[in-house]
Amino acid sequence: MAAQQEKRPIVIGVTGGSASGKTSVSRAIFDQFAGHSILMMQEDSYYKKSDLPFEERKKINYDHPLSFDTDLLLEQLNDLIHYQTIEKPVYDYTNHNRSDEVVKVEPKEVIILEGILILDDPRLRDLMDIKVYVDTDDDIRLIRRIKRDMNERGRSLDNIIHQYLATVRPMYHQFIEPTKRYADIIVPEGGENQVAIDLLVTKIRDILKQRERK
């Protein structure tokens, strides 16, 4: 856990494989603090901007650590920790590229950072107070990914399966699953695990109370 020396936001990292349920876990925590000072950030927003043609961008390995602008994510997370407003990038899943738009994000007392590789970089891990790994079987994640990418991102079944076999699955076992050892809490089955979510919420409330006393 990150060392606490002065007042600063609580940073919760939520990771796991693609379609593991990490977004559901993040939203479940977020909803428990509705009305409080809390924000959610997605690592997906920090995919590197590409000048390649569309057909070439479709071939990029988006599950490799080098696909992310981790330096920018680290910089902006540090800004939020120091109560500075940021202009967060926006990623366009349809065009496989970061758009020219940005979103103004105000600092909050609780920051939830969600993404597949947020525990891969020690600089990010060191900023987190709680590190969560959402652990879901490969077949469940594949089914969820197919439904999501067809319904929300307009992708064909052939494209989804090809990408899964070519990059998603091998990158999960090479880069994502090994980061499980850095987690403080492992949550099986994602947002369906209400007990784990309740424990996380209780821990966050305890940290907030401790900091209010200082």
TrEMBL record:
<comment type="pathway">
    <text>Pyrimidine metabolism; CTP biosynthesis via salvage pathway; CTP from cytidine: step 1/3.</text>
</comment>
<dbReference type="GO" id="GO:0004849">
    <property type="term" value="F:uridine kinase activity"/>
</dbReference>
<keyword id="KW-0547">Nucleotide-binding</keyword>
<dbReference type="InterPro" id="IPR026008">
    <property type="entry name" value="Uridine_kinase"/>
</dbReference>
<dbReference type="InterPro" id="IPR006083">
    <property type="entry name" value="PRK/URK"/>
</dbReference>
<feature type="domain" description="Phosphoribulokinase/uridine kinase">
    <location>
        <begin position="11"/>
        <end position="196"/>
    </location>
</feature>
<dbReference type="GO" id="GO:0005737">
    <property type="term" value="C:cytoplasm"/>
</dbReference>
<protein>
    <recommendedName>
        <fullName>Uridine kinase</fullName>
        <ecNumber>2.7.1.48</ecNumber>
    </recommendedName>
</protein>
<dbReference type="InterPro" id="IPR027417">
    <property type="entry name" value="P-loop_NTPase"/>
</dbReference>
<keyword id="KW-0067">ATP-binding</keyword>
<dbReference type="GO" id="GO:0044206">
    <property type="term" value="P:UMP salvage"/>
</dbReference>
<keyword id="KW-0808">Transferase</keyword>
<feature type="binding site">
    <location>
        <begin position="16"/>
        <end position="23"/>
    </location>
    <ligand>
        <name>ATP</name>
    </ligand>
</feature>
<dbReference type="Pfam" id="PF00485">
    <property type="entry name" value="PRK"/>
</dbReference>
<dbReference type="InterPro" id="IPR000764">
    <property type="entry name" value="Uridine_kinase-like"/>
</dbReference>
<comment type="similarity">
    <text>Belongs to the uridine kinase family.</text>
</comment>
<keyword id="KW-0963">Cytoplasm</keyword>
<keyword id="KW-0418">Kinase</keyword>
<dbReference type="GO" id="GO:0044211">
    <property type="term" value="P:CTP salvage"/>
</dbReference>
<dbReference type="GO" id="GO:0005524">
    <property type="term" value="F:ATP binding"/>
</dbReference>
<comment type="pathway">
    <text>Pyrimidine metabolism; UMP biosynthesis via salvage pathway; UMP from uridine: step 1/1.</text>
</comment>
